[in-house]
Amino acid sequence: MKVEAGVRRIRIVSLVVAATLVLAGGVAAALRSDPEPSGVYLRDEQGRALILRGFNTASSAKSTPDGMPEFTEDQLDREHADMGTNFVRFLISWRSVEPEPGVYSREYLDRVAERVGWYAERGYHVMLDMHQDLWSGAITPDGRTGNGAPAWATYMDGMPVGEHEMWEQYYLDAGVIRAFDNFWNTTGEHPELVEHYAGAWRAVAERFADDPAVIAYDLMNEPYGGTLQGPVFEAGPLTSTYQRTADAIRTVDQDTWVCVAPQAMGTNWGTPSGLGKIDDAREGDPRIAYCPHIYPLPMDLGGGYEGTSRTLVDATVDSWRANAQRTADALGGVPIVLGEFGLDTTLPGALDFVDRMYATAAEMGAGVSYWSRDPGPWGPYEEDGTPRNLVAALDTPYPRAVAGTPVTWTAQVDRLELTYRPDPAVGAPTEIHLPRRGFPGGVDVAGADIVDWNQQTRLLTVRTPAGSGDVTLTVTPIR
């Protein structure tokens, strides 16, 4: 799970456990026959396969009184110009959607809609993420520790919550565990809470069902099972809650993708998931997506991407990829969106890890939402707006929307090579983002015809000549 600030103080025993888990996962992955990428993508209204790249926006929304991130439209313009992003995982919260039982805040949803409008005007796709960490701000008197659920849905039954330097340790406190157990109804005392949660999502979906910018609903951030863990939790109450929530959404919204995530404990480190299949009640093809996170333990515990830590992290990434693809296949061959990954980019080898994860996502056909758009060492800008090292690392060529199905693609700062299977039913052109530093002037395209090259927006559109079979196009600058 993610670190919110600073480098952690860890014990030797924690590092030993981390190494054991990662190596076990990596060895197991190496001994299995790994599935191929499914070739399934989220698609736009024109039928183009979408390569989604953007940020979680933003952690600051967890604690603001109005539930909005500390993020302005001008900052979005800056991000769009600097990195050519086309996607956002936008944090929303149950506490703000349903501040009182059965009462849904129109004012809050209007504020969300205003921000969605900012993204829509710039051609972005929006995933709304019902975020929680440690269940709720109500787990501690000052409200600063957890986030997500409203106080009225937080039942700790008098059990204690301590004080910890590492925020993840709160997950081991009896009060936090009991709050989750009551939500999943493991205690048998609060079956109404899941119904309220599904109802809150229904209210969100009803508000955004006709908004073309909202492409997906991420049902719950990093679920935690309380006293239930592993497959017992994932195949049981987690799958059941997802099904109930998806069914509620489909009563008002037939088209928006529904994203489901595994439990965070373990799967964020590359272990398998036991999540069960979600049946989609929509008419036509199902629109369920799998949206896991990855935070390799050696780095999550404060290490960089070098030496032994790098070896362990690489093993984690290999294991995570194989298990994510297996789960997506078990869910019905669904697309994958990497909902979160990120790190303190001042650590040794940090940008190499960023490159590794984006390359892995490209190989998987997965979208990526980096954690996060907040300023500081994990983000792209300093507090004063000065660009950090992450900006140049992420401003690389990529195909935003493909008129067919991508087979493989690779990119350097001044070169993009894309192989895809054209779909003759898709009339819209393929769109490609090209960074200014790699493409300061004209462009040369082999394998396709240029429709338009806009040096202001950095957007190249191309069309493949009529024909059959896979097509490979290569984009380079005119020297």
Task: Lay out the secondary structure.
Layout lengths: L11 H20 L17 E2 L2 E5 L15 H11 L3 E6 L1 H4 L8 H16 L3 E6 L43 H11 L7 H17 L5 E5 L11 H21 L6 E4 L27 E3 L6 H4 L6 H24 L6 E2 L11 H15 L2 E4 L18 H6 L3 E5 L1 E9 L2 E8 L7 E4 L9 E4 L2 E6 L4 E5 L7 E7 L2
User: How many distinct beta strands?
Assistant: 17
N- to C-terminal distance: 45 Å
Q: How much helicity do the residues have?
A: 25-40%
Which structural class fits the helix and strand makeup? alpha/beta
Tally of DSSP helical segments: 11
What summary fits the major beta sheet? 8 strands, parallel
Give start-end ranges of low-pLDDT stretches. 1-33
Q: From N to C, what is the helix and strand string?
A: HEEHEHHEHHEHEEHHEHEHEEEEEEEE
Q: Tell me the Rg in angstroms.
A: 22 Å
The average pLDDT score comes to: 93
> Strand share of the residues?
15-25%
Q: What is the molecular shape? A: globular
Strand order of the largest sheet: 7-6-5-4-3-2-9-8
Task: Please sum up the structure shown.
By secondary structure, the chain is of the alpha/beta class. The protein contains 11 helices and 17 strands. It is globular.
Can you give a write-up of this model?
This protein is of the alpha/beta class. It is globular, with a radius of gyration of 22 Å. Helix content is 31%, strand content 18%. Helix 1 (12-31) crosses helix 9 (307-330) and helix 6 (192-208) crosses helix 7 (230-250). Mean pLDDT is 93; it is low at 1-33.
Features:
479 residues; alpha/beta; 8-stranded parallel β-sheet; 5-stranded antiparallel β-sheet; 18% strand; globular; disordered N terminus
